[in-house]
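Recall the central idea of this unit: under ordinary conditions, the amino acid sequence of a chain determines the structure it adopts. In this exercise we apply that idea directly, starting from the sequence alone.
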Amino acid sequence: MINVEDWAEIRRLHRSEGLGIKTIARRLGVARNTVRAALAAHEPPKYQRRATGSSVDAFEPAIRELLGEFPDMPATVIAQRVGWVGAASVLRARVALLRPQFRGADPADRTTYEPGQIVQCDLWFPARVVPDGAGMLLAPPVLTMVAAYSRFIMALMLPSRTSPDLLAGMWTLLVAGLGAVPKTLVWDNEAGIGQHRRLTVGAQGFAGTLGTRIYQTAARDPEAKGMVERANQFLQTGSAVRGRNPRTSFMPGRTFTSGADFNAQLQGWLPAANTRLVRATGARPVDLLPADRAAMSVLPPLAPATGPIARVRLGRDYYVRVAGNDYSVDPGVIGRFVEVVLSLERVVVTCAGQVVADHARSWAVRQVITDPAHVQGAAALRAAFNARTAATGAPAPTSAAVVGQRALSDYDELFDLTSPTARPRLQVVR
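Accordingly, the structure predicted from this sequence is:
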């Protein structure tokens, strides 16, 4: 077989210098038929091995029949059904070639976004870098929201991924970041928002108050919100942005003292991230944000309810449990009903419209948060109660009841166990 170099030289001698076939063959030392073949071929020659067939060819009809009925059948099961005893890799390669013919294609169209239409939402979890104040490191979720048209990024660390915190986080970012409401908020199957495209009651009320729609994508379909997925990677490593130095991302090289410190540093970094040049749009997010906002709806006059208000009767220990922690309450309202309101930053307890407790929210769990004023109030109430009890002559309450003890020999006599041969029997003592 002639090589590419001789093929090119033959054609040059014939076309450029006008030499004949015999002359070219004599000059290059090749056969005249080789010269004729080179002049007839309009493409460079390439080596092609003659197909010799494969041992799996005889099994292909049976493989096609199985794939026609069960397109997703594993290759190992197909090998067992057709009686294949050869190398597993050979059969897997043939099944991989045949399977697309029987499994329906799922093409993904290019999506274009109009201003004000969509904001994609997602959670990502940093490493355990946030101390909880009790010597433990936490990894709370970070809510990321990206306006699809402008690519404007908003983010906020939340104490938990429960429905109230997710809704409160969305409201905070919409107010502080956009100042408007998009037509659609896109989520995946996050349990705090809903599952199987059935929104939670809180999410339904949130969407109704804002006059928007919360759309949940299908399971295992990250491409449906790829914009926020890439933003999450950019926040963590910076590697999702082509050509961008990883040091320009948020997480590398940072330390945090609390969740509030994390959010403070994050809000200081986001303005620089939103001035980056986006290749897909050829513009910076901050430059396209005004058009995005103009097409959105205005914020509602009242903030949406992001979580239920717990109403409980305050017990003698004057503590209420909220989000896994115990918070002290003014002991002056012991025995009365109090309302507990939980936000991202505070835990506020009211009684008949009066604030009886106001604590900074703890992001840890199994913590006891106490206001020293409540302890002092409880001590004063306890002293007044004891003085009043002593004045009236009523017995003071004891911390523990005295329980008498009985000798074991009394039970032996009761069940007649004193004799070695006696069987236990019950005696009725009158």
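The CA atoms of residues 281 and 311 lie 50 Å apart.
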